[in-house]
Amino acid sequence: MQKQLEEKVSKLVVKLTEKKKTIATMESCTGGGVANIITNIPGASEVLKFSAVTYSNEYKIKMGVSKDIIDKYTVYSRETAIEMSRKISLFANSDFGVGITGKFNCCDKANLYGDDSKVYVNIFDRENDKDYSIELVSSKSLRSDNKLMVIEKVMDTMLEIV
């Protein structure tokens, strides 16, 4: 899967470069995996504007995610992923923002609510003011495999959008 994924990322970097579009990410459970795989591709510096790994509620809020959204919908929600994608796009002045939040089959003692196997992704297309929301189930036993599943879905969706 890794080789296939790298080919998708390479295609995305080329497409973004050709269209003079940029991307920024605010990731939680993927730990910067989307940004990392983009930076493995030559020319990534032309398209990746900024990336933030915001594992805690505190840093999501510092990056602009509304505390009210987190309090109302939980940190593990579609609404929080939307806020993350929109705020990172605004912060980085990027064409696309990616927000990822969720859990990979584990309990978060700081946030006891929410499904322990759900991941919420949102890709914000700033030019068209459009959100592409994705809900995934982390069904793999290894955390690294769940991360790759999410990253691949982000790449597939970005390739459709761009």
Give your account of this protein's structure.
By secondary structure, this protein is an alpha/beta fold. The protein has a single domain (2-156), classed as Alpha-Beta Complex (Maf protein). It is built from six helices and five strands; from the N terminus they run αβαβαααβββα. The protein has helices spanning 2-18, 33-39, 57-62, 67-73, 78-92, 143-161; strands at residues 23-27, 48-53, 96-102, 118-125, 130-137. It has a five-stranded mixed sheet. Helix 1 (2-18) runs parallel beside helix 6. It is globular. The two termini are 22 Å apart. The model has no long low-confidence stretch (mean pLDDT 93).
Provide the fold topology:
Elements: H1 2-18, E1 23-27, H2 33-39, E2 48-53, H3 57-62, H4 67-73, H5 78-92, E3 96-102, E4 118-125, E5 130-137, H6 143-161
Parallel strand pairs: 1-2, 1-3
Antiparallel strand pairs: 3-4, 4-5
Shape, per Cα inertia axes: globular
Count the DSSP helices.
Answer: 6
Cα distance, first to last residue?
22 Å
Question: Can you tell me the CATH superfamily?
Answer: CinA-like
Strand order of the largest sheet: 2-1-3-4-5
The major β-sheet equals: 5 strands, mixed
Q: Which CATH C-level class is it? A: Alpha Beta
Query: Which consecutive residue ranges, at least 5 long each, have pLDDT under 50?
Result: none
In the residues, how many domains can be counted? 1
| Helix/strand structural class | alpha/beta
The CATH topology is Maf protein
Series of H and E elements: HEHEHHHEEEH
